[in-house]
Batch of 2 targets.
Target 1
Amino acid sequence: MYELVLTEEDVATIAFVGNRYEWSVSLGKLNEGVNNLTESQAWEIREAIESDMEGGHDAFPMLDTTSELCEKLYNLYQESSS
């Protein structure tokens, strides 16, 4: 089981990015607060992130790399990759 806690600001950021990238599409299904993710849900998010990185692109286009949301997503990616 994986846990991803999203704030109101995180959810608003994901909604702003919308359907532009796979990472935001996969996270658009989540709600504010604690999201307990099954292994398959975490893998789906990881695969979406990897899809966006194809060709050497950044993992989270349109996301401030110094933001807390970016850190949370990177940690989830790392955790689900192990």
Target 2
Amino acid sequence: QRQPTQTPAEFASFVSDRLAQKLAEAELPQFPQRICEAFYRIRFGGENLDASELEWIDAKLTSFESIMSQPPQPTSV
């Protein structure tokens, strides 16, 4: 959960660092930053996302949800 003192970009960086392995497994290493960039474009740039961008986000969110719902893998020694 984003802290009140974190910007969305700081939170995206935190999530990327914290979930680096899971994001890499799902082939989503830059996903938090890409979502943050889209948010900034909409929120501060007044832009709209086109259909292909929305489809990409939806597909990647599905992949992200899938990888996050998997139980943690035991670490080998």
